[in-house]
Amino acid sequence: MKDKYKLLVVNRNEELTGKLEENNEAGFYIEAAQTAALAIEKVKNDKYHIILIDTDIPDKDGIELLKEIKNYDPLAQIIMTTNQSTMEKILSSLEYGANDYITDPMLNLEELKNMIDYSIEKLERWRKSIIDLVNNIIL
Amino acid sequence: MIFIWGEHMDTMIQSYMEETEDMLQRAEECVIRLETDFSSEDINELFRIAHTIKGSSHMVGYEDIGNLMHKIEDMLESVRNGSISFNKEIVSLCFDGLDIVKKMLQARTERYSEDFLKEHTEEAAKIAEKIHGLITVNNTEKNIVSEQENTGIVSTFLNKKPRGKNKYYITVVIEEDAPMVSPVFILILKNIEDIGTILYSTITDDDLWSTDENEVRELEMILSTDLEEAQLYTHFALFYVEKINIINLNRNVNEINDYYLNETDYTPYLTVLNTLMELYRLAFCGPCETEPDNKTGYIIKQLQSETSEALSRLRNKIKSKAYKKEFDELFNLTKKMLNGKTGTNQKIRTKIQERLNKFIEILYHGIKGRYIVGYIKLEKDNPIISLEKFIRMINKSSILIILINISMLDILHENEIKDLIRIRNELQEQGIEIGLIMDRSCSRKIVNIFDSIKQIHEFRLCTSELDAILGMFRASDSFQRITGRIDLLKYGTKGC
Fold this sequence. Notes:
Chain A is an alpha/beta fold.
């Protein structure tokens, strides 16, 4: 598919990536990054539409990574994942522009997929405003 | 003026002494000639010497000598511009002035007592006063000062007639910790005075006498000389010179970079591009693990003979030979791959792929902006206006690909996107492929714009120029368009 969405899963283990690949009916192009450093490298070298960031990554606080990526690419749609939720994590994720926040994503895969769909819709709305502007000008 | 230069200053002073003595000798010869015959050449020479000694004396802190030479210089300038007429009094003042300067130098070299030096300094001041009187009495118009344009040390060098059969572009960088830069530049200028002429200098007289703390530490010049490059370095090896770079500008050295802008070299490159694209398709997407294909074998033979013929038409024989060698190797490997057994095929294929990528890169840099591929890097201000200007300028009948580097842009506004789409469409109608280059530093805003509109207006976005070219080789639509256009240009028909 030509206009396949690119999804990046930032998580210290690959189980979630595997799970998403098994259930990839929408045909996303899925990549994984086990560290924040690798995630940043990938985001700078390529365009990812949806990024799942685990709050517990080895080399950086997940919230810090959220801030950094959002700052670099505001159109990247970010979903925070965690296995141990805290009030601080929830509020910070919200504050720094994550679309959604999910606890135990492996156990709540359907909910995560709904969140991804929602993110795609949101992205599509942003895209549409750009396309409309360009098209209106052309017409 | 206080100098704390230590041993470096000693060297500087020694150099100053030697050069000043030489110049005084030459000045004296001029005055002797002037005593009997007036000549403006001698006046000019004398003026230049006075000017140089004035400058270098101030630099090494010998204010007394500098001041006297300044007066002599003013007097000679008045003679040059006709505000005072040349007479015996001027000759006599010149003799007196040169004589006392010699004595003052000697007093310093032989370390005479301060009193002795003071005596000379006072005498020098008296001569300076006399000269001043002479100028003021005779010069009823305006007083001419010597610091006019075209009379400084750099201008004096630049005004000389070029001599020497070689030309070099020389960059000299002065160390950060050099206490003063101008004396070093002056010494460099003095050092090269006898070996050639300066045709261009980035340092002006104003820079030399500037009191600005952020002194320019780099001097770039074009030197015309008979010396060979290897002989030049010695003349620049001075204290505080950090590095020097010499580029030989001679035609015979640079001929290899000549580009012939007419069709003679352009058409062979069309064949070269076509062959590369075909080889690329074979190596990356061609028949794999199949039986030897007679048709492919025939095509390869055909391509090889066409390429060899095209390369023989290139006027640059060194390049032509190098390209031919690489192509022969690639053809041999391709034939091997086509005839090889299943197991070895992949190995050869990988080898061809690596070689091809490298060779395409070399060839790309050889033709970029010259033949076939147009290249422009857009600036932040008015990117579309400069793009349109560029497109108007290029010869569209010989350009197949235009690469536009947009890495410098922060954003493209809606009107600019609209214009870009229009330009892309217009160019595509004329058979020209467009590639956009955005390196890693590129603004995410731009990436997001193109990512958002790609469903309706797809642009080829690449992180490097080479990626853009290879992307066009890989994508079947642009591959067809480019090879079709090559056929059209070569044979006047599409496809063969």
